[in-house]
Amino acid sequence: MEQNNNERKAVKVVQTAGRDMLGEIAPEFARLNDDVLFGEVWSRNDKLSLRDRSMVTVATLVAKGMGDTFACQYQMQEAKKNGVTKEEMAEILTHQAFYAGWPNVWAAFNSMKKAYVEEGAAK
Questions:
Q1: Per the database record, which ranges form the Carboxymuconolactone decarboxylase-like domain (predicted)?
Q2: Domain of 54?
Q3: Residues 58 and 87 in one domain
Q4: How many CA atoms within 13 Å lie on the side-chain side of 45?
Q5: CB contact at 8 A, 92 and 58
Q6: Are residues 9 and 46 in contact, defined by beta-carbon separation less than 8 angstroms?
Q7: Are 58 and 114 contained in the same domain?
Q8: CA distance 17 to 116
Q9: N or C: which end of the chain has fewer CB within 10 A?
């Protein structure tokens, strides 16, 4: 039987950052981060692709005024890994400026530069 191009198969997302960074001081938070947020929610990529989840996550962080944080930079790096191009991210941020606020997006471009500009390249 041929698979419909619109059908997606869930792929388990494995994350250990919670346990690696907070496992000793906040084991329950680490478990929720690694097992529930990533192990369950992000793993429902048959419902919403990792690429789409990355775009939603970045947009939310920027809208909350967290565009120039480690979390946003990390999520932009993940977005890049998940197929969001530099041009697409620039367009997402440009569009978002009108909804999330110019200063929030201006700050987010700092994270974008760190995530999308190669180490040692002209900035």
A1: 27-111
A2: 48-118
A3: yes
A4: 17
A5: yes
A6: yes
A7: yes
A8: 21
A9: N
Domains: count for the chain: 2
| SS3 of the chain | CCCCCCCCCCCCCCCCHHHHHHCCCCHHHHHHHHHHHHHHHHCCCCCCCHHHHHHHHHHHHHHCCCCCCHHHHHHHHHHHHCCCCHHHHHHHHHHHHHHHCHHHHHHHHHHHHHHHCCCCCCC
Does 84 share its domain with 113? yes
Same domain, 58 and 27: no
pLDDT in tens, 92-121: 999 999 999 999 999 999 999 999 986 544
Instruction: Identify residue 82 by its one-letter amino acid code.
Output: N
